[in-house]
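Session log. Operator J.P. requested a structure for one protein chain; no other inputs attached. Running the standard single-chain path with token output.
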Amino acid sequence: MIANNFVKGNSLEKAADTYNELLDSYNEHTYDLKSFAYVHNKLAQLYLDMESSDKLTPTYFKVEAIGGGFPTYLTQISQIFQGLPFEHITSIHERFLKVFPGAKIISDDAEAIRLKEKATNGRYLYIKTVEPVYEFSDKLINTSLGVRQYARNKDLRFFTSLKKFPGATSVFDLWTEETTYETWLSFPTLMNRSFIKDSKTVKLSPLDNAVRTIAAKNDDLIQLEAFINAALKEKTDYSHYFNDLSRQLAGTVDSPVNGGVGQYRAFFSDSKYQINEESIAKTELLRNAFNDLAIILYRCLNLHGSLIGLSMKLSHQALVELFRKNFQEEIVALRLGEEATITAPSSSRVSIFHNKRANGLMTERANSISNMSGAGSTYSGSRLARSPTNASSVSSNNSSITRSGRASNTSGYPASVIQPGYTGLKGSSLKNGNGSVTSKSINGSGKTNAINTKW
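Structure written below.
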């Protein structure tokens, strides 16, 4: 019942956590195989739903009441409020002023500290935007929008705010102060708010800020791509997203002399970031983020070129040439643009488990009979293992399901957003054009996996 309500409220991450807790209880107290099958089936559906999810992310705000005009319990502790998707801070200001008429909104840290020390009798609301703590790791390289949203929204109890230190002249001496807030309850909550349990402040180095900047750029591009693909699928207007995509592409592939993402490449050769293991690992993470950015840009440029009008073809071609020029290192390393075109994410639980269920079931039954009757073959396993939901693979005319549950095309490349076959760290197997499987790995020289694509 609890998990079903989370699903109705579009909180799939909490529903998955609830089923996992139920599964732990079953493992401890029972051997009811039907219960295990039920929970695993629900989890499989949830994970596939989250893989293809493109739900909008809410905006979060830290709110603190200052002054004797508020009740004492409100002034003793701060809160995190969940706003609407893409809600601007001026909108949340208006909403709070309706609840607390006559209050004064402040947004400066120094002024808020001064008012708290002064113990004024007025009513002041200190409101600022915070972001969910985002996981920066190789696990999120070359993953879909659904995977990134799952990593962001899973156990959502930590939020951060950044403040730049004055005196920075470039990205190489940009130090920031990151304050992390931990709430008592994980979002989403019943009242869309939770009191802050604890907070801590750390300093972030220029390399840390570089990794976060490139990762945020990747997320923005993937989100725009997902919105445009969803609009095309639903046959709705996508002009607003397309204009945003054009601006993002122009600002990313064109690297100005004193700006652009290209300036962060200098961290790769900076000797002071090659001293200890932590700095080396962060530098490698930045390099992987650049590889991720190159793949996303390549895919977005293909999408942009397929939608742009004839009158703007020259401008699109200029973007392509800038991409080839400014991302030549990644294009060569990843072998972008050689054979098959990378496709946009299209995995869906409905298309996997409903539209193709009949064909997949018949194919699997035929394979099972063949395996049981083959010479020298043995058969073992339960009926649950042979069900279409838990089968290792389900074949159809146009797509198949891998062991990880993701759809892949007959052309050889996964249908979701550059599946984690390439991580920049480990080898992987990719299908070539004739359907055979070729193992790709990183050799001692640091060359990455080959991704065969073409413009």
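Operator note: Residues 340-455 have pLDDT under 50 and may be disordered.
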